Amino acid sequence: MADASYPADLLYHPEHDWARIDSADAGVATFGITWFAQDALGEVVFFDPPAVGATLKAGASYAEVESVKAVSEVIAPLSGEVIEVNGALGDAPEAINDDPYGAGWMVKVRLADPSEADALLDVAAYETLLG
Amino acid sequence: MPVVTDSAARRTSLHDRHVAAGAKLVPFAGWEMPVQYAGIRQEHEAVRATAGIFDVSHMGQIETRGPQALELLQLLISNDIAAIPLGGAQYGVLCREDGGIIDDLFTYRLDEERFLTVTNASNHAKDFDWFAVHAEGFDAEVLDVADDFAMVAVQGPQARALLAPLADAPLPARFTVASLTMACEPALVCGTGYTGEDGVEILCAPDVAGRIWDAVVAAGAQPAGLGARDTLRLEVCYHLYGNDLMETCGPIEAGLGWCCREATGFLGSEAVAAVRDAGPSERLVAFQLTGPGIARQGNPVLGGGEVTSGTLSPTLGVAVGMAYVPAARAHVGEPLEIDVRGTVRTAVVVEKPFYRGSAA
What we know:
The complex is a heterodimer. Helix content of chain A is about 15%, strand content about 35%. Chain A has one domain (about 10-125): CATH 2.40.50.100. In chain A, strand 2 and strand 3 (about 30-35) form a beta hairpin. Chain A is an alpha+beta fold. The longest helix of chain A is centred in the C-terminal third of the chain and has 8 residues, at about 125-130. Chain A is built from three helices and nine strands; from the N terminus they run βββαβββββαβα. The relative contact order of chain A is 0.26. In chain A, the strands form two sheets. In chain A, strands 1-2-3-9-8-5 form a six-stranded antiparallel β-sheet. In chain B, the strands form four sheets. In chain B, strands 11-12-13-10-4-14 form a six-stranded mixed β-sheet. A five-stranded antiparallel β-sheet of chain B has the order 6-7-8-5-9, with helices on one face. The two termini of chain B are about 40 Å apart. Chain B is α+β, with helices and mostly antiparallel strands. Chain B folds into three domains: about 10-55 and about 150-235, Gyrase A, domain 2 (2-Layer Sandwich), CATH 3.30.1360.120; about 60-140, Aminomethyltransferase beta-barrel domains (Alpha-Beta Plaits, 2-Layer Sandwich), CATH 3.30.70; about 280-355, Elongation Factor Tu (Ef-tu), domain 3 (Beta Barrel). Chain B: Keywords: Aminotransferase, Transferase. Chain B: Belongs to the GcvT family.
């Protein structure tokens, strides 16, 4: 696992999830879990994604991620409909540890209400929350 | 998901070593214990391939001594205590009168009239009370000596080779015990373990445990935490009390009939004999998932039964576990469906154990 990092171009949910708003289409975002979340979980061995077309609700669980030891729910930072899931995590869930903001992305979502993003934390606020 | 530490939890004499090694510490049975250092998988693989060292100082010890020490233990423990040779070690269970398992434990015969029994941390106080209550009327003394000992396990195919230069005498063979010095410190070394690999468990005074730990780590053992200890034991189908063993279940159901000698008349022997004769209604089986997912403790088995332990096996790369199922379904090849938090996952009953290590 790489050292702790929290990219400045992401928005953060206090449950340790991130959202990256698509630079070309503000109505689309990619979700994943933060470095802190994957570090607390330990080595990820299984990711159970939602189906494409599933409806996600901000603040609610949309998937499960399992380490050798434990199961954790993944919380949606924003509401919307799943338009793509990261199928590569089926065979290589360790990408969630190795590259949580890149190859470890989980879903791409058509946002129901892009203004919900205003409620998310910027990197400074999230790092303050981590203490 | 912050790591919670309980300020009331006890710390072992190796706490400073764990912190220095970057361990993640978690509350466990009233203790603050390392769950992992480098990562569960890496530690697991080190134990399977070379050697790992575990702090198991949370485990308890009860000494039983006196002219009727053997008779008392014969009453309490399911196995045949008279069959333990001097310097021998034996596994057994402690049963209630109705056969329910109070604990599973190893007993070492230190002398003709002196025995040391190692208890699970979560059961130690309960076990000691059980020993003390039943010692009434016996010419034997039972002593809670848990505070006298730190305990480390050194396990793996290279554990003995790595320890031999640190010891002043040959290491004890499997299921035997020897008093010797380890890294110049007095220790009781036992040829036992909980990983399926060859190796020993070392009991010593808490104030010298750090020096032994340092010497073994310097010799090349990978510090390993409770996380790896759990995946290692599950791959070889060793029971974990509180998961696979509980007071509401007996040894025959758990597959521990081999360590019950009803002829000795131990407490619970009549109940155990009745279940052995009639056949149990449920049995603990080993299963492997045949599709995606990981079954965990508490997941129901469709048609009856429950998963008691489950994980992804680091050695095999598949999800494995143990579950109590109706006896009629407890045979190899039986397909199972397990409700994993609302999703039905498919599994199949397989032979125990999942893996055979260097101890087999």
